[in-house]
Amino acid sequence: MKVVALVFTIVFSLMAQANAADKEMVDPLNSPQWGVMHKRFLNSEPVVFDDKVKVYAPEFAEDSMNVPISFEAIELKDIKEVVVMADLNPIPLVLRYFPNELTPYLAFRIKLQQGSPVRAAVKTSDNIWHVGGTWVDAAGGGCTLPSIGTSSGDWSSTLGKVSANIWPRKNSSNRLRIRVMHPMDTGLAPGIPKFHIEKMTLSDKEGNKLARLEVYEPISENPMLSLGVDKHEYLKINGRDNNGNIVDAEVVTR
Amino acid sequence: MTILRSVTAISMALVLGLGFVGAGNLQAAGTSTTAKSNAFDYELKAVEIAKDTYLFQGKNEDFSVKNGGNVVNTGFIVTDDGVLIIDTGISRRYGEQQRAAIAKITDKPILAVYITHHHPDHFLGNQAYSDSKIYALDETAKSIKLEGEGFRSNMYRLVGDWMRGTLLTMPNEKLKAGKTTMGKHELEFFSVDGHTSSDLAIFDRTTGVLFAGDLVFNGRAPTTPHANIDKWQKTLSALKELPFKVLVPGHGSVAKDITPIEQTSDYLNWLVGVLKEGASNGMDMNEVMRTEIPERFQSMDLVKIELTRSVTHLYPALENQFLNPVND
Ligand SMILES: [Zn+2]
């Protein structure tokens, strides 16, 4: 009996591995850039395409300068890191999120130059990347022009200003929403150097670091973020941009 | 705070800098592959909807290479002195085909062209009437000047070769609100707003036909890229009071009563409620976009897509109302 059980175990584990390998081979979004993404941003580490990583986006980009993206992976435990990327963007890397103990949920908006897969890769403590994603088509509105936002004249007077709120929730994680005024220039347009928020940290009253975020150029102007912050009702937010400007704010439920 | 950004703001360059590339890049010419669109024939058929009054009804669809952008209602009135045209469609080809179709009905000259508002499906056919008087409200003309080129490149991207040769042709006459008589038709022009910052409604008191432009949709979800819903609702209440016999919406079928006005109003009211509730509960845009459509709107064409769009258009302003400044 023991031998039989052992054989079964081996067979099953082989099957499971083969299964994982199969999934790794076939990108459900069928993107020509997937191989490059895997190598560049996930260090070619083991990957499974996993429905437990939910990525939400509209099917098309109505305003290519503000495409809302969100991900959640509440069924996955022991998350080390989440990487968000848009394969076909000139700068594919959107952000890296280190939620630690916080609920793995994040919503934000990005600039999309063309139709592209948008993915979230969630690394669990067993060093496997769980990847979910969706395709966003670039052809959106005919009557909506890409929004140039507020910074075209007067960004300097509002730079680094933060608006935020926390919504306490009974049956799920409290919701933090935060908007930081910043032009988020990509550096790809002639004559405009890159100028974007790089890092943000979330801490509690005692200064314990709760989560960390690395932000890259594709994030839209005046980033608007939504996070799951468990039962916290007081949060400190610290960040800085690539020119050393500081973001500093305290948020309480109101 | 010390500001360490290393360039000074230069308006146009800065605009470009916010994106990956300039908007001009979007103007890649589309290609048409379907057999039908090779002929680039909109197959416009003038339907008589009242005495002297005709409609070219567009499809209740999104812009596509397949439909060439024929998704809008345009119309014309044949008066004793000449033809009055309401909106010119999406492209040079549309304008030319519209003009040819009108010539099959009447050999009277073109007296005036009226543009109801600055959305591309309503004025990009102007080119076919560059020898005529093209009227628009002042504010509409300003918006066309500001956004017309951007719309034009968007349309090349969305409907492709149907747009070939389409150039921006500005309205060349200022339209004033009020009453006037054209070839024995008593017309009243209403300068209103809500769907955009400047909307024109034309009421022909002689025939009882009300051309409502995109202030009224029928059986198709309203679009909101430049909408102010409060103002739109006020305008709808006013339109409802007019003693019209025939109502021509910007999109969807002609009606004989206020039903489409009430439907448009009902939908906008629901939409605002959804957006406000979402914003006040701290929801993100995708959560609001996933809102279930109530049964009474489910038969409206494009309702899910338009909800997605309206969230993009209207949510950012609303959500800011529920955030508090937390530094300085
Ligand atoms: Zn319109």
Automatic annotation (TrEMBL), chain A:
Please list the residue ranges annotated as the Ig-like SoxY domain. Answer: 40-143
Matches recorded under Gene3D superfamilies: Immunoglobulins, SoxY domain
**Identification of the protein by name:** Quinoprotein dehydrogenase-associated SoxYZ-like carrier
Which key words tag this protein in UniProt? Signal
Q: Which branch of life, at top level?
A: Bacteria
Keyword Signal found:
yes
Signal peptide span per the entry? 1-20
Q: Where is the Sulphur oxidation protein SoxZ domain?
A: 171-250
**What organism does the record attribute this protein to?**
uncultured Thiotrichaceae bacterium
From TrEMBL, chain B:
Q: Which terms under GO biological process does the entry name? A: antibiotic catabolic process
Sorted alphabetically, which SMART domains does this protein's record hold? Lactamase_B
Q: Which Pfam families match?
A: Lactamase_B
Q: Which residues form the Metallo-beta-lactamase domain?
A: 71-251
Supply the source organism for this entry: uncultured Thiotrichaceae bacterium
Signal peptide boundaries: 1-28
Q: Which residues form a coiled coil?
A: none
Claim: Zinc-finger is one of the keywords in the record: no
Family indicated by similarity: Belongs to the metallo-beta-lactamase superfamily. Class-B beta-lactamase family.
The name this protein goes by in its record: SoxH protein, homolog
In its keyword annotation, does this UniProt entry include Signal?
yes
User: Keywords in UniProt for this one?
Assistant: Signal
